[in-house]
From TrEMBL:
One of its GO terms (cellular component) is host cell cytoplasm. This is Ubiquitin-like protease family profile domain-containing protein. It comes from Bradyrhizobium septentrionale. InterPro entries: LRR-bact_E3_ubiq_ligases (IPR051071), LRR_dom_sf (IPR032675), NEL_dom (IPR029487), Papain-like_cys_pep_sf (IPR038765), Peptidase_C48_C (IPR003653). The active site is at residue 185.
Length: 606
């Protein structure tokens, strides 16, 4: 048994000191100048040297399971969370709370101040498996995590709680993750929370949130690809660090979280937590971070298309719903190809390498051939889906070949064209065309930014399609909010309405113009009542009264989308001139749709 109660004079060149499991009551006032690592857990320390936080070379201090007072621990934690702190990472115990553990509802209430209805829902989940562990996780996340001081992080946790209150499957996943994370240090809990965010994204995909938002779905796929790539890089880096110094304990979890945090903005990983407590432990340098970013981007350019088609299950799930016949045909083709075609390719591959009859070679090359066939067949379906342009389904033809343009946005904001679009003489206008022209309208009428919102087609479709009321309410708030201020909302909304569904192609566009001041909606349909059902449904969702308005009629079967963008432009111009539907609707019975003008705007992107 170790018996040290004090330390002897220490050499000034000492760079690592391990004195755990002794009976030390204090540390030397002057530690060696070269000291980098200090392990003093499981002692009887009641205080720390005053200069501990400013020791020039010190990187990590482990003081767990000592007799440090709550005041000392609090002061150490507060000092490390300061913006200008550059001292060592110090690991301490968290003071044990007195009295019984907080209930699930109370732990939730701490994050949802002023939302008694949601907290009341959580009271009913206290008997679910893992509920108490999740309550403890929330409490530690609030009181013992470096990210708790970040306003964006707090809002994300609150959003999580609202979402999970209405989604039993997501809630169960959160409870499961929390059960494994509570006994870990705060950085591992941060990584666990990041995992919960990934689970939320997958749950949204399973709940059809992205069935009409393929652009956003692809961006999410990029984010998941980057995280997977970073995990592999972290594993290799941790192995290298262990090989370099076998006496050092290196945890690839610390390295992985370090990469995530440092590359959060550069790789568009905004859904994960912004900080970690003990980055120094990761032993990552600025060069490591830069190299990792380059590796991830190079890997994405070379491999993402195949990853999307063959490795990312959520993509396959969505495709099976929005293109069921094509997906079923692909599955049958894949099964057939794994018979004679697989055998034929494998035989030729073995013969070309003079390896016929070698069992090991047959097994290894067999895996390669299977993947090759799967890439070809699933890749063909991927390309077919992305090339399919129809109303009600956002066009993604510019997204997959341009990974350099990706910003990792996962907030639900639409993907806008990165280059001019083409609209043929009789081509139906699709989501991408409307989004592009709406972007031009915003630029043309900047004075309307505080009064009007030009809503993206994918957002309108999601309002109608989602079965998750929490998602719908959050989307409504996102739509009406101006400059992200919760009480600063737009008076007017322009909503392009399509009669398509996730399982049914749409064939008609119309425009709903909403005056939120009077809770009124005006439906401009160039085909009369064709879209009345969709408009009535949308008006109910928005809690507005649908009022009659005169609208010009289209003279063909393909210009409905042109009428939508031109009606939007006509109304926007009248709003900009000060005209309002206060006494009578803003009729558009004299509107003339101008397809050539729209073609010019789209082709010139101005």
């Amino acid at each position: 048994m170790n018996r040290l109660t004090s330390l002897p004079a220490l050499p000034h060149t000492l760079w690592r000191l391990i004195v755990s499991g002794n009976q030390l009551t204090s540390l030397p006032d002057r530690l060696p100048a070269a000291l980098c690592w200090l392990y003093a857990q499981d002692n009887r320390l009641t205080s720390v040297p005053e200069n501990l936080l400013t020791q020039p070379s010190l990187r990590l201090v482990n003081l767990m399971r000592n007799s440090l007072s709550e005041r000392v621990q609090t002061n150490l934690g507060r000092a490390q969370h300061a913006e200008d702190y550059q001292g060592p990472s110090i690991i301490v115990d968290v003071a044990v709370a007195q009295g019984p553990a907080r209930t699930l509802a109370k732990a939730v209430a701490d994050w949802l101040d002023g939302e008694p209805e949601t907290v009341a829902l959580w009271q009913g989940f206290s008997e679910e498996e893992g509920a108490q562990e999740y309550a403890g996780f929330l409490e530690k996340l609030r009181t013992e995590n470096v990210n708790a001081a970040d306003e964006g992080f707090r809002q994300a946790v609150a959003k999580d709680l609202r979402r999970a209150a209405n989604n039993p499957q997501l809630r169960a996943r959160y409870f499961e993750v929390a059960s494994d994370a509570n006994q870990s240090c705060q950085d591992r809990r941060t990584l666990a929370w990041n995992g919960m965010q990934n689970a939320r994204i997958i749950a949204d995909i399973e709940n059809r949130v992205y069935d009409n938002r393929l652009g956003d779905l692809i961006e999410l796929g990029r984010v998941m690809f980057r995280l997977d790539a970073l995990e592999g890089i972290a594993r290799e880096k941790a192995h290298w660090l262990r090989t370099k110094n076998s006496a050092r304990r290196v945890d690839e979890i610390d390295v992985y979280l370090g990469y995530q945090v440092q590359l959060r903005e550069r790789l568009g990983l905004e859904h994960i937590a912004p900080g970690m407590a003990y980055f120094n432990v990761s032993d990552l340098t600025a060069e490591d971070i830069d190299n990792a970013e380059t590796l991830v981007r190079d890997k994405e350019t070379a491999e993402f298309a195949d990853y999307l088609a063959t490795d990312w299950q959520p993509w396959d799930t969505v495709v099976s719903r929005i293109a069921p016949e094509a997906h079923e045909a692909m599955s049958e083709q894949l099964i057939d190809a794994m018979g004679d075609e697989f055998d034929d390719r494998l035989k030729k591959r073995l013969a070309a390498l003079n390896l016929t009859g070698f069992g090991d070679a047959e097994r290894e090359l067999g895996v390669e051939v299977r993947k090759e066939i799967e890439r070809e067949i699933r890749g063909a379906l991927r390309d077919k889906v992305l090339a399919g342009l129809r109303p009600g389904l956002q066009s993604d033809r510019h997204i997959l070949p341009r990974p350099d343009q990706s910003n990792g946005n996962v907030s639900g904001a639409p993907i806008r064209p990165q280059r001019p679009l083409v609209l043929d003489a009789e081509e139906w206008v699709d989501d991408a065309h409307i989004s592009a022209d709406y972007a031009l309208v915003r630029a043309e009428y900047p004075g309307l930014a505080a009064q009007a919102r030009f809503v993206e087609p994918a957002q309108v479709q999601l309002l109608r399609e989602t079965a998750d009321e929490t998602v719908r309410q959050e989307l409504l708030q996102e739509i009406v909010r101006v400059d992200q201020q919760p009480n600063d909302t737009a008076d007017f909304l322009f909503l392009p309405v399509n009669n398509g569904r996730a399982d049914q192609e749409g064939d008609h566009w119309s425009l709903m113009f909403v005056d939120r001041r009077h809770r009124a909606a005006y439906h401009y349909d160039s085909a009369g009542p064709l879209n009345s059902e969709a408009a009535t449904e949308l008006a109910t969702i928005l809690s507005v009264n649908l009022l009659p308005v005169r609208m010009a009629r289209q003279g063909n079967n393909y210009d409905c989308g042109v009428f939508v963008v031109d009606a939007t432009r006509g109304l926007a111009a009248r709003l900009a001139q000060g005209e309002r539907p206060d006494h009578e609707p803003l009729h558009l019975d004299g509107l003339v749709a101008d397809r050539p003008a729209l073609q010019r705007r789209l082709s010139q992107n101005r």
